[in-house]
Amino acid sequence: MSETPSFFSSRTARTVAILAVFIFGIAIRLYDLTDLPLDFHSTRQLLSMIKARGMYYETRTDVPSKERAFAIQQWKFRASVEPEFFERIVAWTYRFTGEQVWVARVYSSAFWIIGGIFLYLLARRLTSEDGAIAATAVYLFLPYAVIASRSFQPDPLMVMLIVMFLWAVWEWVSTSTATLPQGEKSPMGWMRAALAGLFGGLAIFVKFPAAFFVVGGGLGAVLSYRSMKEALKNPQLYLMALLGILPGAGYLVYGIFVAGYLGQQFSGRFIPTLFLSPSYYVGWLNMLNLVAGGMVLMLALLGLFFYDEKKRRFILGLWAGYILFGLFFNFHISTHDYYSLPLIPILALSLAPLADSLLAKLAQLASTKFLRLSASLILLVGVTASLWNVRNQMNAVDYRPIADMWAEVGAITDGYNLAGLTQDYGARMAYWGWQNITSWPTSGDLIYSLERNGVERDFKEQYDNIAAKKDLFVVTDFDDLNRQPFLKEKLSAYPIFAEGDGYVIYNLMK
After folding, report:
1. What angle do CA 462, 467, 470 make, to 5 degrees?
2. What does the alpha-carbon distance between residue 312 and residue 91 come to, in Å, rounded to a whole number?
């Protein structure tokens, strides 16, 4: 039986190909590095920025006491669901770099790149060198992945740890099922079980939703080689489970029963009535289309047929974890695209055997050096064109002037009691304007409240609670103001205190 041909047939070709993939993956993530992180879910990124600055200012004594107190207050005032691990790393780095917004972007990009290394190692075990190179390229070059993997939020770190867990758990099942002379057991089994448990536990610790992917991947890997009954007889499985549970469970116990700040943070993420709403399913499909695109999703699902039965069980375990995750976090999966970020390595692994078969066929057809070089250039042009589009997207808007606008608004409103309808629930004002502002709910918040509670908020009661006792009302989100006619009509009765490019401030004292 002849060996399956490889497109990257020599060691040199494989080395050049994988190095090119990672060099391109790093380069595109470092482009426009110092722009403000407002291009992707700015509300979530600003939350981490505010927290990191507060941690950093807590260690400084060379800043004005008013700014230091405000930064620390804003950090501790903001809600916490995940451990502030990433923010701590960034705040520590600020000691050497100063408060630079690009620091978190570099860390997030590094997390994603490290995840790419482990995804390559895993895909190589599941398919071949060709399939692994292609899977890594999908993971690194998918346009959504490029933008999302630069964001200051725990998700890129979580995805990295999930991928590391998947690599470790597959190595573990491969080791524990390997046939050794005279019935010996590999000494690597315990080490790999411990690594898998550690990586999985850290992923869940960083962000609890990782549990769906860790459990799904773990069960898929175990069931690829043996029944659950047989697996439960292996003591290494219990070590892995223990290490996987302890970090997240410890944080959960501390946050709920000791510190008390997690008690209300998990409500509202599962809304049973959404299962009867077509908008839930349409929204989820829209998020998938935004994250991956219909063509990539289709090819990934078709790629499952190219795996043998054992490996297919492993990948299907990951898909099952994602589906259960989407059913549980039903509101967020249909409205927040980054909740599908862990799907990207699953897509890449699902595509690996299909890409391997296509590249093998291409290797047969490109039988001469000229044809092989031509095919390689076509692949290079395709990757470059895709990344150039991402570069253009990054270059389309310069967010740096926004910081100056908010500094101006902060100076104008200094000393006043503020409410406002602004982007990111007043986080931009807090970060660049150094002022606290009571945030008026967006139209999306009002819709969410209606879906969750089944009761529409009373405008007068809401206005009395939020704005009636304030001095000024700041508006910067004019699109959302137009979607709230009652608020727009109410504010029109007040004189304008100040206005400029991008903002209007109403005087509620007159």
Report:
1. 160
2. 42
